[in-house]
């Protein structure tokens, strides 16, 4: 019985007799049956050191979503077909990211083109009976010095924005005071009312008419 998510290749006298799908089958004892997992699975690529356009080494990891589409090729073309796909993915990652700038890698912009990596891996994967469905660039690990510089830059920008906002608030306050001063100069009665409002409780206010 071939379980769901697998196929089985039946060999007779060392040659392929047939490919068995999921379900029960009658097989002669002299024949050999080799199962192959054809369900989708993940092939994780360990972090690779890639040199950016500025010659800065960074470590990048990714994962491939793959499935076996040709079980015969998967069994016969390579002793370890997954290792073949893994190596092709490593090379494709280096080729795709080697010329990208450190800023683009740090910001995870569209410059990291996973589709171009997949297209580079496809020919090698198809040769061993594997289809690459998706490539995902997972982690971009920058050198400690670059990370520290990035934090300093973000901190400096935040401080600059705070100072700018503080300066704007101070300018607005000074403008309001200047407008209020002009209003008081133009209206002595209003100035007296404002003085009375500002006086502390219990204070004695004496108003005199200086015009006399």
Structural notes for this entry:
Helix 2 packs antiparallel against helix 4 (114-127) and helix 5 (144-186) crosses helix 6 (188-198). Strand 4 (41-51) and strand 5 form a beta hairpin. 46% of the residues lie in helices and 25% in strands. The protein is an alpha+beta fold. The model has no long low-confidence stretch (mean pLDDT 81). It has helices at residues 71-76, 81-97, 102-107, 114-127, 144-186, 188-198; strands at 6-12, 15-20, 32-37, 41-51, 57-68, 130-141. It has six helices and six strands, in the order βββββααααβαα. The protein has a three-stranded antiparallel β-sheet. It has a three-stranded antiparallel β-sheet with strand order 4-5-6. The N and C termini lie far apart (118 Å).
